[in-house]
Amino acid sequence: MDVTDEALRALTAVPYLTDVDASLVKMIAARAVRQEYAAGQVVLLEGSPEVAIYIVQRGWLKAVKMSLDGRSRCFRIGVGEAFNAIGVFIESTNPATVVTLEAATVWVIQKEDMLKLLDESPNGARRHSAPRG
Fold first, then answer.
1. What is the pLDDT of residues 74-114, one digit of tens each?
2. How far apart are CA 64 and CA 76, in angstroms?
């Protein structure tokens, strides 16, 4: 299996990409970069301007978000889940720090690549639902 096919399998496991036009998902997969992380490794830092979308293919991670009162909230992220997309689409920094809980494989789609693809195929990103009868 080549890298693009592997990325495509990871992307199609993400629930909110299942209804996106297949040709757009293939274009996204072609631009995705596989990253391997060891247990306990920082994937991204809250507030960092280097924004991308991350798709988990293997392993467990945790996202830690600090509140204004200094408390932290943790969320587990696993296989078939995407994280950090909000930072791409609302023009902000990374909303949380993400650390691996175990060795993980993550596909990364850079903000610039994602926005360019959406600009080139705006209708491909729309969700299509079956007609109601």
1. 999 999 999 998 878 887 888 899 999 999 999 999 989 88
2. 9
